[in-house]
Amino acid sequence: MLAKRIIPCLDVKDGQTVKGVNFENLRYAGDPVSLAKKYSDEGADEIVFLDITATNEGRKTMRNVVESVAKQVFIPLTVGGGIRTIEDIRNILLAGADKVSLNTAAVNNPELVKQASEAFGSQCVVVAIDAKREADDWYVYINAGKKKTDIKVKEWIKTIENLGAGEILLTSMDSDGTQKGFDLELNAMVSQNSNLPVIASGGAGPVLEHFNDVFTKGFADAALAASIFHFNTLEINDLKNYLDKQNIPVRTAI
Q1: Catalytic residues
Q2: pLDDT value of position 76
């Protein structure tokens, strides 16, 4: 079995790391370059960097910040936000990213996923899905969670897999920032209906069992968190040691 990954997430606004609840009420969480280095040194498996206002502000990702982060980490770096074209993807990869995360652009132009996969390899293409429950199903949201689409998550995951995506970054908007645990039902549904690796996001609290649950009950391949790492309520090393004792395969903790 492949090792499960622990991934800190840097939500960046105006060059600074922020974190909110249910995509609202953002608060400052630190300098992204310093945090990225800290997490890399502490044994994180990857870093996700999301320029969360780039799409809604109609601008490109802050390449200078990406370059600064990339210089400080020696683990895979995924970057998203404001990426709309193949040229945007190329520039972000040249800035030091290992993967790009596509969300709104993938929904608005699904062919971009296929083009990116063919140009750079599927291993570089992560499709981020912001999912919210409506009645008895989950729907895809875009524009940093501000715009609902008519696309059901279960249908979208099949579409992006066929287009050549290499991975899914799945965020539960209902659980985001609540620290009450991952949405296990959502993660299990996606994991069991897709052949792509799934990164679970949204809801992790300073509770070790949250991570055990998302791997054993949500069937996720990786778990992403922000608040608990930014505000030092849970250490990556402690988390990995706990998971190892639960017989969940993880890369060796430092």
Answers
A1: 11, 130
A2: 95
Say if CB 2 and CB 221 are below 8 A apart. Answer: yes
Record the tokens describing residue 26, joined without a space: 């953002």
Q: Which domains, from first to last, does the chain contain?
A: 5-245 (3.20.20.70)
Residue 233's pLDDT is: 84
**Cα–Cα distance for residue pair 55/57, rounded to 1 Å:** 5
- Residue ranges, the chain, pLDDT below 50: 23
User: Tell me, what's the pLDDT at 10?
Assistant: 87
* Res 66: pLDDT: 87
Which single residue is written with the structure tokens 């606004």?
Answer: 13
CB 230 within 8 A of CB 35: yes
Contacts of 58 (CB under 8 A, 6+ apart): none
Please compute, for residue 96, the number of CA atoms within 13 A of its CA located in the half-sphere on the CB side: 18
